[in-house]
Amino acid sequence: MPLKSYGVLVGRAVDARREGGTDTPHYQVQLRDEAGVDYRIAVNVMSKEFPSELLFRVDEDFRHPVTAQLGDLTSGWHRLDTGPRGVNLDYVRQTLFDRELLRPLPANVEGPSNDLADLLDDQVRRAMREPAAVVYAFGERWGPESGVPDKIFGFRPGNGVHDIHMNQGNVGAFRKDDGVWQDGAMMIELPDQQRWVGIFLAFQSQSWHTDDVTGHALVDGPIEEFGAEPVRIVAALVNPVGPAPEAETVTLLNASPDPVDLTGWHLVDRALHVGPVTGGIVAAGATLVVPLPPTVQLGNKGGEITLLDPKGLKVHGVSYTAAQAERSGWTVVF
């Protein structure tokens, strides 16, 4: 069953605190919206499932079309629709980051800058020092808890957001939380620096091949091995010269030492429109330029491209921004 109340909280970070112990400790952040309402953001830093270390990725210059949509949101809590056209997150279907860059990190160990709590604290404290910084916390809402103070920061009523991590492909008791287009994350907008910071978290026990409806791990999905994808998307012509329909193309590279037969493979756009990969066998180290049918559209305002194998499993994905697509006739290189 998907999360009951998925959305994004927009506000200013005003306080932060580590939570010790061994019972799935969290890094806690107090956010306040422009109306003066306080919220607590509970960020997992350790898993109950083995291995306990979370996978993390911090992108200090996060560039993705989703940021253009977030900039239009007002301060406060926003319930989000789930689906490919919504303002939401999906680690599997939406290329927010290269999963090869995910790294496991322990929750809390002695010494500076060597655990997940240190990493989160560094980013949140920076946001607190920047007067114009805005924090966007994606996850599930709880509260308000009438008459009950917040257990960490003491404000009333208790109120906040949790599940600030990938929310699909779970195992055991957490499988009930599976869903698509409902993943959690934190993003920090730094207007004075004209950049965004993206903070993404996942459990090592979660699968990266999930059902498109339920978000459950696919039984026949391969064992995950980051960086072993034989075929990658390396370029795309998203804004060709000429009138519509434009002749958009995607360039694939066979990075493996063996030929790969691409019969039955497909390319998918942000709206989940599917087009076949034509070209058959691609030699080791060779590229293939795939023309897209009119049904698959690479928008000039930014978008995502996903490569699927014949079983419908994601092999690779990329994203591009409106700035990358604005030059007519130029190929975007990933």
Low-confidence stretches: none
Order of helices and strands: EEEEHEEHEEEEEEEEEEEEEHE
Structural class: mainly beta
Distance between the termini: 35 Å
Count of alpha/pi helices: 3
Describe this entry's structure for a reader:
The protein is mainly β and 334 residues long. Helices cover 7% and strands 35% of the residues. Strands 1-2-3-8-7 form a five-stranded mixed β-barrel. A hairpin with a 4-residue loop joins strand 9 (185-190) and strand 10 (195-203).
List the helices and strands and how they pair.
Blueprint: E1 6-18, E2 26-32, E3 38-44, E4 54-59, H1 66-70, E5 76-79, E6 103-105, H2 116-129, E7 134-145, E8 158-162, E9 185-190, E10 195-203, E11 231-237, E12 249-254, E13 260-261, E14 266-268, E15 274-276, E16 281-282, E17 287-291, E18 302-308, E19 314-321, H3 322-325, E20 332-333
Parallel strand pairs: 3-8
Antiparallel strand pairs: 1-2, 1-5, 1-7, 2-3, 4-6, 4-10, 7-8, 7-9, 9-10, 11-12, 11-20, 12-17, 13-16, 14-15, 14-18, 18-19
Give a quick summary of the entry.
The chain is mostly beta strands and 334 residues long.
Question: Top keywords for this entry?
Answer:
about 5% helix; mainly beta; 3 helices; globular; about 325 residues; five-stranded mixed barrel; four-stranded antiparallel beta sheet
